[in-house]
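Journal club side-thread
Mid-discussion, someone asked how the predicted structure for our own chain would compare to the paper's figures. Pasting it here so we can look after the session.
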Amino acid sequence: MGIQTGNLFVQVIDTQGEALPGVVLTLSGPGAPHVQETNAFGQCQFPGLSSGSYTIKAEEEGFAPNSQPVTIHPGRNTDLGITLSPAIGE
């Protein structure tokens, strides 16, 4: 039996390339949804995830939400960059 879980490392930036702290990330897929907030560097990690397909949604006030698929592979780290655009009409 090998390692059956993987880790997800996320970096959230704005369209200018600046890190976005306090972004709420919701990861849904195998198991219950995981919710975390990005740190002062716009980073967040989800350790020990079951392998499989997930959807991650990033939400921050003043920005349009961004959802995208991500696949977790056993025994591997997955790096994901998310860019949030300013919300239109706010």
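Post-session note: The mean pLDDT is 94.
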